[in-house]
Amino acid sequence: MLAGCSAAPAPISSATYYDLVRDSEIFTPTTTQQELDEYAEEVCKVMRVGDVDTSWVYGVKYLTDAGMSGGDSGTFLAQATSYKCPEMVERFPG
Fold it and tell me: Does position 52 have pLDDT exceeding 80, yes or no?
């Protein structure tokens, strides 16, 4: 649980997720919403592999291994988990 929270954060809406991803320009403009949903699902699957302290590392590694820069990986990791698995947000450092 995040400090000061009594429950995991509510997921962001699909519209907010799509806007955030499009604004960050990580993916090409032709990437479909279905593809963005699938990428978010994959990130959540990867995040569930590790324990609370290391799962975010698995997420970043998964995305960088797929060719994403480190900065973009962190950005998309936050966007994807906030959308599809907000309970994972508490696993981020800091």
Answer: no
